[in-house]
Specification:
Blueprint: H1 5-9, H2 11-23, H3 38-76, H4 88-107, H5 113-116, H6 121-134, H7 141-160, H8 170-177, H9 180-201, H10 208-238, H11 246-272, H12 275-297, H13 306-327, H14 330-333, E1 355-356, E2 364-365
Helix pairs in contact: 3-4, 3-6, 6-7, 6-13, 7-13, 9-10, 10-11, 10-12, 12-13
């Protein structure tokens, strides 16, 4: 009995090591020889269904984004472009976007937040692959490395995310909603949100970290309410209806309001900074905020071993790094210069930009209508 005492005192660590040995041992006898086979699969098949919904939803979102980008490019090359709302391809992209977001919404009803939220990296990596195939964009070495790291991170996330199965009925959501952990979390989040909003509105600071931190704080409420609403709808379909409880409609209001203001701050960030900067930073901030919300509100890491948490966090880090590599310098490579700026030519000074004039013999005209070949004295040079 004395010989077994050290192992009993470190039971969580030994449990994590046993899980590691089962998940990464292939070909051995037994029901748990492999991450997606035997006992592991039976214990996680509901979560795997949520993962499948999230991955498919993110891939559909990637396709929709590229279709919308393709419709923008088509309209830009037309001599008399039609309004965007009359573009069939653009509406097809919007419809696919709605389908993808619906898949993500449903995924929260079957799997923990800490498992679904980091899978947003699949949307970024999938968009890079689709843009290479359909939009003929360049495939860089950093893209391949980033995709590999993102897939490796996703594998670790699926294997080491919290293995809990919660039947989140309306009563369960009410219990979490009035818990002291969530109350403290909400108070701290409101205080931090007010401080950041003060610097943004009163001081006029529009740094990307402040804008995306405001969006991330709202995103934490979004994922909490989305999982609550999705779980109660799933519970209503499989068991008893939960739509008669006031908490369902409270969560719906929180979900809609947080989404609206979150999109507002994201739009401000995209107006001030290029997409290649906003996408990876927003992915890191959103995932971090969502994971913290899942841990505090739904207590998803309750009783988890340190080794399991460490490998999970390492999987998140790999996905963050993969997204950064895929989006790095991508915007600059496809930036089209629609004008010629004489201010960039050494020895030349110009207060305005010269636009090409296809209807004249001269190179272009200045904004006041004068010819660009006209000298400073007002005499027009012959071409």
């Amino acid at each position: 009995m004395a010989a077994r005492a050290p192992r009993a005192s470190g039971a969580p660590a030994w449990a994590a090591l046993d899980e590691l040995s089962r998940n990464f041992t292939y070909g051995a006898a037994g029901t748990g020889n492999g991450s997606l086979s035997g006992d592991w699969y039976r214990r996680n098949q509901i979560h795997l269904f949520g993962v499948l919904l999230a991955i498919l939803g993110n891939l559909v979102i990637s396709i929709s984004l590229n279709i919308q980008k393709y419709s923008h490019l088509q309209l830009a090359h037309q001599e008399s472009p039609r309004p965007l709302l009359k573009s069939v391809s653009w509406w097809g992209g919007v419809l696919l976007m709605a389908v993808g977001e619906t898949g993500n919404f449903a995924a929260y009803g079957f799997a923990p937040i800490t498992l679904i939220a980091p899978l947003g990296c699949m949307s970024v990596t999938g968009s890079a692959v689709i843009s290479v195939i359909f939009l003929k964009e360049n495939l860089r070495a950093s893209d391949l490395l980033g995709m590999t790291l993102a897939f490796a991170g996703t594998y670790l996330l699926v294997n080491f995310a919290p293995n809990i199965t919660q039947a989140n009925s309306a009563r369960t959501i009410q219990y979490f909603f009035v818990g002291w952990q969530f109350m403290i979390y909400v108070i701290l989040e409101i205080l931090l949100f007010c401080v950041l909003l003060y610097f943004h509105k009163r001081k006029g600071i529009e740094h990307i970290a402040i804008l995306l931190s405001l969006a991330a704080l709202l995103a934490s409420l979004t994922v909490i309410s989305v999982k609550a609403v999705s779980s109660m709808i799933t519970f209503s379909v499989t068991d008893n209806t939960q739509l008669t409880y006031p908490i369902f409609y409270i969560m719906c209001i929180i979900m809609i309001a947080s989404c609206v203001f979150q999109v507002k701050f994201l739009n401000q960030a995209t107006k001030l900074y290029d997409t290649a900067t906003v996408v990876p930073v927003n992915h890191v901030f959103f995932t971090t905020s969502a994971v913290i919300a899942g841990i505090i509100f739904y207590q998803e890491f309750l009783g988890a071993a340190f080794l399991t948490i460490f490998i999970y966090l390492f999987g998140c880090f790999l996905s963050f790094l993969g997204v950064w590599l895929v989006t790095r310098n991508r915007e600059k490579e496809h930036l089209q210069q629609s004008y010629i700026d004489f201010g960039n030519i050494p020895g030349k000074q110009s207060l305005d930009k010269v636009q090409p004039d296809p209807n004249g013999l001269s190179y272009g005209t200045l904004p006041d209508g004068s010819d660009s070949a006209q000298s400073q004295s007002g005499e027009k040079k012959e071409v």
